[in-house]
Amino acid sequence: MVKRIAMVAGEASGDLLASRLIRALRVHHPDAEFFGIGGPQMEAEGFRTLWPCDRLAVHGYVDALRRYRELSGIRRELLARVLAECPDALIGVDAPDFNLWLEQRVREAGIPAIHFVSPSIWAWRGGRIRRIARSVSHMLCLFPFEPPLYRDAGVPVSYVGHPLADEFPLVPDRAAMRERLGLRPDARVIAMLPGSRDSEVRNLAGIYIETAQILASRHADAIFLVPLATRETRRIFEQALYDAGAEELPLRVLFGHATDAMTAADVVLVASGTASLEAALLKRPMAICYRIGKWQYRLMKRMAYLPWVGLPNILCDESLVPELLQDAATPSALADALDGWLEDPAACEQLAERFTELHLDLRQDTGARAAEAILPYLERVTERSA
User: Fold this and answer.
1) What pathway is this protein a component of (predicted)?
2) Which among 123, 122, 147, 144 has a CA at the least distance from the CA of 309?
3) Per-residue model confidence (pLDDT) at position 293
4) What is the pLDDT of residue 260?
5) How far apart, in whole angstroms, are the C-alpha atoms of residue 71 and residue 175?
6) Between the chain's N and C termini, which has fewer beta carbons within 10 Å?
7) Is 224 helix (H, G, I), strand (E, B) or coil?
8) Taking Cα atoms as reference points, which of 141, 113, 120, 42 lies closest to residue 364?
9) Which of 22, 17, 26, 28 is nearest to 6 (CA)?
10) Can you say whether residue 358 is alpha, beta or left, with left for phi > 0 and alpha for psi between -120 and 50 degrees?
11) Greatest alpha-carbon span in the chain
12) Do the first three CATH levels of 4-161+364-385 and 174-362 match, i.e. the same topology?
């Protein structure tokens, strides 16, 4: 019997995760049909898109409230489609605020509901685990410290590793990447990643540019690479360059190519998020910088459980790389933090060794392990139908 699986992926990262999962499930069920909310990488694996995943992308609380009616309408219409088509399983990929509501109702209808990527209950809003326990048949976790939290709450769970650890080489080739990008082998290359969202780049562009100006005054051979994800974020950053009168900086704006920029770099300035994990997997020393609205920061700070916001520090459970947040994220402080790495090669080597250990811990063949966790639920459906 052909398996039919509904999936919901939010944003580009979810599209990537879901596409690999589809590929891994097809090893066991080549004729399986997949439908729901997804992106181009899922479509390349034969996914039938009812709504594109970028419709779920929201940028902060204000945008979420503004678009509540639209997103709620999509979710209710999708629920009706799923219940009408009665697939063998629903797999929600990230996007917990959208997916948990959907998963609970699908599960109540007797359809297995799997959630891929644990919400960050270990960082804040830990009370969500009670809702998760009501909503999901199985949780798939990317990080090794997450499963015990779910087992304690009675939620079936599997650790599947992080897909980036499968993709990234254990030893990145900096020299080859510099040659590819046309950079001098002996230059001081500093990658600066202000984030992928418009609001992030608006908040950080000016600070990053001033930081680059300070470092350029200290290092005549400095070259700055700034990968930006969209035309709008590129426009925002280039406008900030113009406003600061900094067009003469030795700075190259890249359209995408964040991994290339970090691979070529000696040191990375990065906004907190997945990019900080990417920098760690590339064994690059970094400083983590983030700024959000004051009221939002105060709220999140009150609700936070951990002393760090950066994934490298959280995963290694120690302060390996500096984090400069909100008012502490001044250009001079950021320049000093980056200089600390540039002037201490021994510390950079020690950090690379620690990041290699982390890389090995996270390298689990994520797609295959996630598929293995899901397959028993598909077989139960077969047994029930028989």
Assistant:
1) Bacterial outer membrane biogenesis; LPS lipid A biosynthesis
2) 123
3) 55
4) 97
5) 46
6) C
7) strand
8) 141
9) 22
10) alpha
11) 73
12) yes
User: If you search the block for the tokens 């489609």, which residue do you land on?
Assistant: 81
DSSP character for 249? Answer: S
Instruction: Provide the residue ranges of all domains of the chain, joining segments of one domain with +.
Output: 4-161+364-385, 174-362
pLDDT number for residue 386: 46
Q: Which of 198, 119, 116 is nearest to 159 (CA)?
A: 116
CB 297 within 8 A of CB 263: no
Query: Which residues are bridge partners to 37 per DSSP?
Result: 8, 51
| 174-362 has CATH 3.20.20.70 classification | no
Q: How far is 115 from 295, CA to CA, in rounded Å? A: 30
Report the distance separating Cα 61 and Cα 299, nearest Å.
Answer: 12
pTM above 0.90, yes or no: no
CA 168 to chain centre: 14
Q: Are 250 and 225 in contact (CB under 8 A)?
A: no
Q: Which CATH superfamily is 4-161+364-385 part of?
A: Glycogen Phosphorylase B; (3.40.50.2000)
Residues 355 and 280 sit within 8 Å (Cβ to Cβ): yes
Q: Which residues pair with 290 in a beta bridge?
A: 325
**DSSP H helix total and E strand total for the chain:** 18, 13
For the chain, list residues with pLDDT below 50. Answer: 299, 303, 305, 382-386
The answer to whether the beta carbons of residues 209 and 246 sit under 8 Å apart is: yes
Is the Cβ–Cβ distance between 8 and 22 less than 8 Å? no
* pLDDT tens-digit readout, 167-207: 999 999 999 999 999 999 999 999 999 987 888 898 899 99
Q: Which of 251, 286, 249, 253 is nearest to 271 (CA)?
A: 286
pLDDT at residue 55, as a whole number: 75
Beta carbons of 162 and 366 less than 8 angstroms apart: yes
231 token code pair: 């035309």
pLDDT tens by residue, 259-299: 999 999 999 999 877 899 999 999 999 999 987 556 555 54
List Cα–Cα distances, 377 to 3, 29, 277, in angstroms: 11, 13, 31
